[in-house]
Amino acid sequence: MAFIGAKPTNVPLTSADIQDGTINTADIADGAVTSVKTTGVGGTNTPAFEARLSNEPSVSTGTWTKVPVNVEIYDVGGCYDNSTNYRFTPTTAGKYVFYVQVGFNALADGKYLSAAVRKNGTTIFGDGDAINHTGHAGGLASRYTITAEANGSSDYFEAYAIHNHGSNRNFTAGWSFFGGYKLIE
């Protein structure tokens, strides 16, 4: 019979027979796992935020416009500015998941709406179109989910939208939001 570490003094094995750092893999019954036995496992998905639009400001046609998502649903870590910049500046370096959805009421048939996420002012994902098809004039939403790297000090992220209705349209508060969270690495 083979043993891990020193030959055990007790049969069956007890915790005294197994030294720290001597097991690479093991089968452990579900009921036997406790928080003490799982220290150092996992992590947190923070900082994290989600913000929604509280009003329905006008958006000019053909112009990329920052989405003024000003009502924080949550802001774990205090990294989202909902007052004037409407941006997320994470203070922890790593990979992040971002999601954005923008919506407009009454977009004409055949017209498009696009959402995008910008990092430090440059679009990193978006520009795809949600097109209002003939016979469906009315509300339309465009959404994206992406991952991006943040340096934890100066990188910031914002949500933008554009449409080509031909005249100004208003964001729809219930359909417009922006959020993100750090991935556990």
Reading off the top of the CATH hierarchy, the class is best stated as Mainly Beta
First CA to last CA: what distance? Answer: 38 Å
User: The CATH topology, please?
Assistant: Jelly Rolls
Give the radius of gyration.
Answer: 25 Å
**Strand portion, in percent?**
35-45%
Oligomer: single chain
What's the mean pLDDT score? 80
What overall form do the CA principal axes indicate?
elongated
- Helix/strand/pairing class, anyone? mainly beta
Question: Percent helix among the residues?
Answer: under 10%
Give the helix tally.
Answer: 0
Strand order in the largest sheet: 4-1-14-7-11
The domain tally reads: 1
What is the succession of H and E elements?
Answer: EEEEEEEEEEEEEE
Number of strands: 14
- Sequence stretches where pLDDT stays below 50 over 5 or more residues: none
Biggest sheet character: 5 strands, antiparallel
In the CATH hierarchy, the architecture is Sandwich
Describe, in plain words, how this protein is organized in 3D:
0% of the residues lie in helices and 41% in strands. With 185 residues, it is mostly beta strands. The protein has one domain: Jelly Rolls (Sandwich), CATH 2.60.120.40. The two termini are 38 Å apart.
Output the keywords:
185 residues, Jelly Rolls, elongated
Secondary-structure map with pairings?
Elements (H helix, E strand, L loop, with lengths): L47 E5 L5 E2 L5 E2 L4 E6 L3 E2 L5 E2 L5 E14 L4 E8 L2 E5 L3 E2 L6 E13 L6 E7 L5 E2 L6 E6 L3
